[in-house]
Amino acid sequence: MATGHEAATSAPNAGEYVLHHLGNLNSSGHPQTSMVDFSIINYDTVFFSSVLGVIGLFLLWRVARVATSGVPGRAQAALEILIEMVGNQAKAIVHNEQSRKFVAPLALTVFVWVFLMNSMDFLPVDLLPFLWQTLTGNPHAYLRVVPTADLNGTLGLSVGVLLLCFFYNIKIKGLGGWIHELFTAPFGNHPLLYLPNFVMQLIEFTAKTVSHGMRLFGNMYAGELLFLLIALMGMAFPSMSPFGGSLLWLGHLVTGTLWALFHIFIVVLQAFIFMMLTLVYLGQAHESH
C-alpha cells in the first residue's frame, strides 16, 4: 500500500508495526500464525475481493451499456482496446471457438478483478486500518486491504482456475477420455506406467495451481512489505536530529513516490500474467496428449 503518515507518539517499534499490518481480520480474532490456514476465514480478504469484483463488473457493465457505434468515448475506447487484446490472446491459446465464448469474457473479468485488487496497494498504508480501528474503538484491530497479498486469496483464485480445467478436460475429452489420459500420459499406454503417469499428472496439476497463486501473492506481498518499510522512514524522522530527520523524511517521500510509480507497472503486469496463465491452463485442458 502507498506510504501514509502516522503520529510518532506511542508508536509501536518497527517489527510490531510491520507484523500488525500483515495481520488479517479473521474468524479466530487473532493474527494468523501461518500463511495458509484452512481452519479460519480472513474476513477482510473475502470482503475486499467481493466488493472489488462487484465494482469491476459494474464498471464493465456501465461502459458497455452506454457504448455507441459512433465515435467512442475514452472509457469505451479503453474497454474496446482491452477486449481486443484479451480476445486476441484467447484466440491464440484456446482454439475451440465455442469455449472462447466463455473463456474470453472470463479472462477479461480475471484481468479487471485482479487489477482492482492489486490497485488497493496504492491507498495510504495506514488509511483504512486507522479508519477501521476508529470505527471499532479497538486500536489493535487488524485489517488488510490488498486481497492479492494474502496467499489464501490468490490460492482461492488458482483453485478456481483448476476446477475450470477439470471441467473443460471432461467436456472436451469426455469423462472416460480424461481418465484414460490421466493414466496413459505422458509416458505411454502400458499397465506398468499407469501409476507413474497418474502421479505425474497429479504433480502437474498441483504445481500449476500452487505456482499460479504464489506468483501473484509473492509479488504483491513484496510490494506491500516495501510500502510498509518506506512508511517506517516517515515515522522515524521525529526521533532524529533536525538535519537527519529532514533527510529521512525527504527519503521517505522520494522513495515512496518512486516505488508507487514503479508499482503501477507491477500491478498491471501481475494482472496480465495471471490472466495469461489462466488462458494457458484452460487451453491445455482442450489439448490431448
**Strand content of the residues, in percent?**
under 5%
Distance between the termini: 44 Å
Task: Let me know the largest β-sheet.
Answer: none
Q: Tell me the helix content.
A: over 70%
In terms of quaternary structure, the protein is single chain
**If you average the pLDDT, what whole number results?**
89
Count of runs of 4 or more consecutive helical residues: 8
> Which secondary-structure class do the elements indicate?
mainly alpha
What is the count of β-strands?
Answer: 0
**Principal-axes shape call:** globular
Low-confidence stretches: 4-9
Count of discrete domains? 1
What's the order of the H and E elements? Answer: HHHHHHHH
The value of Rg in angstroms is 23 Å
What topology does this entry show?
Elements: H1 14-21, H2 43-65, H3 74-93, H4 97-119, H5 127-136, H6 151-184, H7 194-236, H8 242-285
Summary tags:
289 residues; mainly alpha; 0% strand
Question: What does this protein structure show overall?
Answer:
By secondary structure, this protein is mostly helical. The chain contains 8 helices and no strands. The longest helix has 44 residues, at 242-285. The model is unreliable at 4-9 (pLDDT under 50).
